[in-house]
Amino acid sequence: MRIEHSTISPPKGFMAAPPGSPYELRRRDGRVVVEIKREAGAVRDLHAALIQLAKVVKRDRKIEWGCLVLVRGRMTAEKAFNEWTEIVDGLLDAQVRKRLALIWIEPGSFATRPETPELQALGASLKESLEGVEAAWRGRRANVTPALFEVVKVLLHAWLRGRGPLAVGEIQSAAGVAYATAANALAFLEDRHEVTRRSDRSAELTSFPTASWSEILALSESLRRPAWYADRTGRPLDPEFLLERLQKRVPEGVAVGGVVAARHWDPSFNLNGTPRLDVTLHALTGPSLADLLARIDTSLERSWRADERTVLVVHPLSRRETFFERVAAGPLAIADPVETLLDLQEMRLVPQAEELVRALRKGHDSTRP
Q: Which CATH class is domain 14-138?
């Protein structure tokens, strides 16, 4: 069983970035790094991605090119390049800006800034790699609706916990969708051979739903709508410190996820430290986002994307059933295994996510994923 993060096969000479990296691809010699953004729709998206890439380039002098790739952006290419030039010339020092590049890719064409032979070759290679997955990616947008997302999560939770088949009414109630919507979602998954139906019409996953899960990961940000927070005062904030503060004033409808939850679900979870605090906030029973932040640290500022300064991420949960688990060791609830897996994927901790699946499934069936 392999959980994929990226939907692009690296071009020749490149490889997927290591888990936790703030970019998607890097050249094998480490001299070129690439971050890919699909359908970036606002100047602030471009600004945030550029600043993140600039930090990477500034920190590692070995990097010759930090490339931001915009695929089918909702800005025109001309506007994107104009905004790029304004941001680079106005905000960054010369040693950083001369090592940054923008590659614009749309069906049938691409363009680069600057227009060097090396970047033109990379743009052509990336365009070829991306064209192979664009049709499938567009199909994912049509297939993975918010309702299907919740149904898959309910089924995957039951599968990971070894709870056996669920009646359609159970799935519908837990996901908080209409009965017909749940039935249609199950029919879709059954056509994919990811769900098996019993004689009483109850349903369960046949195995880890690799196809649907990869589509979910490709659209995770838009489906989950995370809120990222960072400290801009320069203080060395520790996510463990934020966790302690939250534990002192625990509200209902809130659970801790991410690495903290992974260690709960798998005591042998292998990762040093806690890179950030992931919190799941139930929309139906939890506090407002502002109230939650007040309980943790009011000096934190909202970011437009995750980067190395991110210390807190809040994931809203809209379905009816939370699947939160209470533990005797502390006052905070633990987010369910599926939300935890999604948190790990967002941090690009892919091997750790795969190991967590294996740990959860151990003993539930004879065929381990």
A: alpha beta
